[in-house]
Amino acid sequence: xxxxxxxxxxxxxxxxxxxxxxxxxxxxxxxxxxxxxxxxxxxxxxxxxxxxxxxxxxxxxxxxxxxxxxxxxxxxxxxxxxxxxxxxxxxxxxxxxxxxxxxxxxxxxxxxxxxxxxxxxxxxxxxxxxxxxxxxxxxxxxxxxxxxxxxxxxxxxxxxxxxxxxxxxxxxxxxxxxxxxxxxxxxxxxxxxxxxxxxxxxxxxxxxxxxxxxxxxxxxxxxxxxxxxxxxxxxxxxxxxxxxxxxxxxxxxxxxxxxxxxxxxxxxxxxxxxxxxxxxxxxxxxxxxxxxxxxxxxxxxxxxxxxxxxxxxxxxxxxxxxxxxxxxxxxxxxxxxxxxxxxxxxxxxxxxxxxxxx
Length: 358
Ligand SMILES: Nc1ncnc2c1ncn2[C@@H]1O[C@H](COP(=O)(O)OP(=O)(O)OP(=O)(O)O)[C@@H](O)[C@H]1O
Ligand SMILES: [Mg+2]
What we know:
Layout: H1 4-11, E1 29-35, E2 38-45, H2 53-64, E3 72-79, H3 82-92, E4 114-119, H4 127-140, E5 145-149, H5 157-161, E6 169-171, E7 174-176, E8 178-180, E9 183-187, H6 203-214, E10 223-227, H7 234-242, E11 247-252, H8 258-272, E12 275-282, E13 286-288, E14 291-293, H9 300-307, E15 312-316, H10 334-350
Parallel strand pairs: 2-3, 4-10, 4-11, 5-9, 5-10, 11-12, 12-15
Antiparallel strand pairs: 1-2, 6-7, 8-9, 13-14
Helix pairs in contact: 4-10, 6-7, 8-9
Bound molecules: adenosine-5'-triphosphate and magnesium ion.
Family: In the N-terminal section; belongs to the MIP18 family.
Subunit structure: Homodimer.
GO biological process, one term: iron-sulfur cluster assembly
């Protein structure tokens, strides 16, 4: 005899293609009625114009086809009521009802996610490039990785990933990050019409940063990189308030004055008491016919690491300008190899296991 349980068991492995959770768990199976060996099944979608309607429809039909003894079925796709949608969102938020003031799961004291802020003493040394490429290298090694582009005014992460025309999917007020090269990305870029300048100041910055946690469904991630704005200002303090356990990666170039950079970064690290993971020296040398040319001088990264009493983790070679739209280096390029090595070191330092296969 066909039972409701048997049908729900068959439907349980079917996932909402966007949020990757079971449609049964998300409360999307509204109704199952059985008459003999026939079933009427009603599945509800978050919004009526759900772009993934066909995918859900065919996945559900396929799953129903596997129920032993079920000879025929009628499948109806409907739209959620406000109440159902609220349950859906509460499942996404880890079961916390919306009307309670919630600490987003990522910000809870027992969060399993590691935070790394990528900072520098000065602008233009390659923080965003390093953030993007390190994130991709970590993802290539099986880590679940996200990036928050914390450079609210000067966002450049979407440009580096070539996803400037993408928008996060919105389910009511909950945003799904844009995914590129296996990395989940949120940036102010996605919320600014026509690249108009952003003029929020002071407290708004912290609020925006908080929204990037509270309003975004990150799912389970191992490491979240924060691309910091140039300088060591307000944002560093906001990040410290939200993420007291965040660690820092300092980017420099060979020609920067190590003592000067160390003084700035050191003050910031003191104020925030963040652990510094190490220094990344970017644009270290240009390699031509197997020979390294130190165009911008030598030793800046090492001196800075010494000043900050930390380690020089990596020297990233200078690259020829990338084709527009994609600032992510392929794995086999000298830069790609350097980032793979850096990702291994950072992964080890954070003591997080890769989650390949999940
Ligand atoms: N290893 C490299 N080889 C060649 N060009 C590079 C390298 N790293 C970064 N660049 C280039 O240098 C410029 C500045 O890099 P990026 O935007 O990452 O720096 P930033 O520190 O984030 O800057 P800002 O302080 O403005 O946020 C970009 O045009 C980038 O493509
Ligand atoms: Mg930048």
